[in-house]
């Protein structure tokens, strides 16, 4: 049987480290948005695991939505173009919106997604990312909630893929 972890060189962030940090971020968001009924938007599909854990660690009334935009089609290099594959199902007017992303790398994806969301005139729009690779940034993006800053390595697991595989690893690992 082929093992899911056979090409993982090392664990960068363990399941426990991720759980603890997600709890901290959820607690912070709950404090910041207690009366605001925020709309938490999941950028599919990398983020579906982080997103589902995060919203369960955010014990206030809130609503969820999903969208899919991607700047990566396969492999480990960004294509530099962004496609909106699944649009949001609701309007952001008069909403406090938190966009939840798996990993902020060059910023190509968010630099295209953010203006499109701002056009809908939300009251506020904040960015929450589990991982940030600041050394790779090509577009300036201000992050409001960040799980971990990581070096310039390609990581997989906890929702992140390499050619669509490894999303179901419970930790974040570096490939060989
Ligand atoms: P950006 O548009 O360059 O910021 O790239 C963001 C997207 O690239 C993320 O949502 C991921 O899908 C993908 N990505 C960037 N770095 C990694 C990585 O280390 N592992 C897996 N996917 C990555
Ligand atoms: Mg991806």
Descriptive overview:
This protein starts with 7 loop residues before the first strand and ends with a strand. The chain is globular, with a radius of gyration of 16 Å. The model has no long low-confidence stretch (mean pLDDT about 90). α1 packs across α2 (about 50-55). It has three helices and nine strands. The protein has helices at about 15-30, 50-55, 110-120, and strands spanning about 10-15, 40-45, 65-70, 85, 95-105, 125-130, 145-150, 155, 170-175. α2 links the parallel β2 (about 40-45) and β3 (about 65-70). The strands form two sheets. Strands 4-3-2-5-6-7 form a six-stranded mixed β-sheet, with helices on both faces. It has a three-stranded antiparallel β-sheet with strand order 1-9-8, covered by helices on one side. By secondary structure, it is an alpha/beta fold. The longest helix is centred in the N-terminal third of the chain and has 18 residues, at about 15-30. Inosinic acid binds near residues 102 and 109.
């Amino acid at each position: 049987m082929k093992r899911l972890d056979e090409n993982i060189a090392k664990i960068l962030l363990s399941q426990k480290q991720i759980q603890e940090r997600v709890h901290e971020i959820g607690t912070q968001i709950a404090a910041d948005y207690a009366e605001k009924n925020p709309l938490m938007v999941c950028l599919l599909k990398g983020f579906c695991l982080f997103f589902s854990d995060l919203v369960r660690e955010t014990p206030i009334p809130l609503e969820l939505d999903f969208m899919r935009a991607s700047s990566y089609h396969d492999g480990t290099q960004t294509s530099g173009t962004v496609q909106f594959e699944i649009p949001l199902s609701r309007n952001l007017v008069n909403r406090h919106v938190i966009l939840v992303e798996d990993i902020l790398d060059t910023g190509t994806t968010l630099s295209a997604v953010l203006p499109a969301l701002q056009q809908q005139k939300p009251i506020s729009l904040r960015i929450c990312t589990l991982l940030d690779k600041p050394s790779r940034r090509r577009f300036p993006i201000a992050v409001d909630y960040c799980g971990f800053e990581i070096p310039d390595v390609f990581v997989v697991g906890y929702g992140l893929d390499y050619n669509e595989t490894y999303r179901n690893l419970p930790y974040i690992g570096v490939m060989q």
